[in-house]
Amino acid sequence: MSKQFCTFVLDRLLFGIEVEKVQEVIRYQEMTPVLTAPDSIAGLMNLRGQIVTAVDLRRRMGLPKNEEGGLPMNVVICTSEGAVSLLVDRIGEVVETEPETFESLPDSVRGEVRQTTTGVYKLEHGLLHVLNLGATLDGIVTSGGSPRTMAAA
């Protein structure tokens, strides 16, 4: 059975999240920094009255700072503890994948990207890295103040 993914780009890598986990995709929003938060937390934002934790995926994955400039985009995802925003370089499109095109990660993928990605789908124009939301958000403190665990995503 095919799966659909909302795609986005980080440091020239194409990532995807299953569409049913995505609440919305929005432009950059002003954030309030949280001084005691981990480095990967960009801040808190007010999304139509809801306080949402914004996670800088570049920092979370140990990728270099975006040298191209420009403001990141928000991929707002639904978790069992509420909405969380993932800051990404650029939004892609919705891509439909077939199970036979899925493979485990190549050995060349290392570090945090390897720990936060479940595998890749082979596409016509490259690879789609499937983001593991549980691993990506593990240990992140939500706007409610409680640490997330992998089971909560």
Per DSSP E runs of 2 or more residues, the count of β-strands stands at 11
The mean pLDDT is: 89
Structurally, the number of domains stands at 1
Main sheet summary: 6 strands, mixed
CATH-defined superfamily: CheA-289, Domain 4
Percent strand equals over 45%
Stated plainly, the CATH topology is called OB fold (Dihydrolipoamide Acetyltransferase, E2P)
Total number of helices: 3
> Order of helices and strands, N to C?
EEEEEHEEEEHEEH
Class per helix and strand makeup: mainly beta
CATH architecture: Beta Barrel
Please estimate the helix content.
Answer: under 10%
Q: C-alpha Rg, in Å?
A: 15 Å
The neighbouring-strand order within the major sheet is: 8-1-2-11-10-9
What's the CATH class, please?
Mainly Beta
Report how far apart the termini are.
Answer: 23 Å
Characterization of the model:
The protein has helices at residues 57-60, 111-115, 133-137, and strands spanning 3-10, 13-18, 22-26, 41-47, 50-56, 73-79, 82-88, 90-97, 102-103, 117-123, 126-131. The protein is mainly β. It has one domain: OB fold (Dihydrolipoamide Acetyltransferase, E2P) (Beta Barrel), CATH 2.40.50.180. Strands 8-1-2-11-10-9 form a 6-stranded mixed β-sheet. Strands 3-6-7-5-4 form a 5-stranded mixed β-sheet. Strand 6 and strand 7 (82-88) form a beta hairpin. It is globular, with a radius of gyration of 15 Å. The two termini are 23 Å apart. Mean pLDDT is 89; it is low at 145-153.
